[in-house]
Amino acid sequence: MSNRNPTRQSIISILKLVLLVAILAWIVSTFPKKDWDALVAQDKNWWLIASAFVGVLSAHVITFLRWRTLVAALDVPLRIIDAIRLGFLGTMLNMVSVGAIGGDLFKAIAAARLAHKRKTEVVTSVLVDRAIGLLGLVIVAAVSLHLAENLSTNLLWIRRGATVLAIVGLVGLAAIVVIGHRLPLSWLHRIPWVGHSLFRVATACLVFQGRPMLVAQMIGSTLVVHLLLTHSAWLISNALYETPPTLGQHFQAIPPAFAAATLPLTPGGVGVQEVAVDRLFQEVDGIPDGFSGLIVASMYRVILIAIAAIGAIVYFTGSERKWLQQHPSSRQSLRDESMQNR
Predict the structure, then answer these.
(1) Is residue 59 part of a domain?
(2) I want to staple 141 with a disulfide (CB 3.0 to 4.6 A). Which of 50, 162, 241, 332 is the partner?
(3) pLDDT tens digits, residue range 204-238?
């Protein structure tokens, strides 16, 4: 047995390396050549691009920690390092799955492997976290467009839609906080075969009941994420153009475009996000002549690819531990942490 384990580990390491290279090759291959050629030809301020990279990376790390907070609220122990590794896994696979949210499925599956008897709650937490992220995105879009003047007809329609979605989402969260504990969920147990699982899913979805501070923490961190991402896009514009659109103009175009990229149309939203950014900048009043939202979005895509590469390395070079199985004593510490959010 002592001779077999090193061999097995070597084979696993080689397979991980092959998979890592294959994923990165696929991500790079999805980048449109014409967009790449236009980007290469554009003059660049690399310091500003580096600053944008730090902003986008920081936003991603915040989302990983936000999810870990939600998992802790469900009394599921998860190390910060595991949350970051799984978060990077989702980011990496978002680049190769259909739409910009498909990586969440793989992240949920991988997280469930670590959760032992709490698989249902962990998988549900990934979906709830994504819903919170999208809610934050439409809130930022709605507020930004309400603060803007001289909106085009299309942007007015986007403002109305974002406002409705934001109100519905916030009212729904408020209802869960106030009356979530009164909802009669016990009848779900009576459904044959799937009743128990449905009850656990519903209970996990109602994790915010009686926890206004948890809601504030989740929404607040989500808003910070989208502010960082939009600010990073503005830094990219400044890195590529001497006279870029203002930060306010970026807030009119970037959040709605990023929402469009979540549609399950292409791998990682490639093409959809770039076209959406370009089209929405064309709708914004007062954009400087010669500015191309497509080139800015392409540079943003390069940064995402770089972060996906980091994610691949972090995930495949790390080690997993079934935390619930190996450290049952950690349940109480995580439960104490989640109680602080009540």
Answers:
(1) yes
(2) 162
(3) 778 888 899 999 999 999 999 999 999 999 999 99
Provide the number of structural domains found in the chain.
1
In a domain, 182, yes or no: yes
pTM (predicted TM-score): 0.80
pLDDT at 170: 93
pLDDT for the residue numbered 228? 96
> Contact, 232 vs 73, CB < 8 A?
no
**What is the torsion angle, in degrees rounded to the nearest 10, for the CA atoms of residue 92, residue 93, residue 96 and residue 100?**
-90
147: Cβ contacts below 8 Å, ≥ 6 apart: 248, 251
Q: Residue 74 in 3-state DSSP?
A: coil
Distance between CA atoms of residues 147 and 93, nearest Å: 35
d(CA 131, CA 169): 9
The answer to whether 97 touches 106, Cβ cutoff 8 Å, is: yes
The C-alpha atoms of residue 100 and residue 310 are separated, in whole angstroms, by: 18
Q: How much is the average pLDDT of 235-255?
A: 93
Torsion of CA 128, 134, 137, 143, to 10 degrees: -90
Q: Per the domain annotation, does 17 fall within a domain?
A: no
Is 167 contained in some domain? yes
Backbone angles phi, psi at 99, to 5 degrees: 80, 170
Q: Residue 133's domain spans which residues?
A: 46-339
Res 143 pLDDT > 80: yes
Distance separating alpha carbons of residues 111 and 85, to the nearest angstrom: 10
What one-character DSSP code corresponds to residue 288? P
pLDDT (0 to 100) of residue 78: 81
pLDDT tens, residue by residue, 251-289: 999 998 888 776 654 444 455 777 888 889 999 998 998
Residue bearing the bigger pLDDT, 98 or 309? 309
Question: 69 CB contacts (<8 Å, ≥6 apart)?
Answer: 214, 217, 218, 221, 341
Half-sphere exposure (Cβ direction) of 168: Cα atoms closer than 13 Å: 9
User: Scanning the structure block, which residue is given the tokens 């949210």?
Assistant: 101
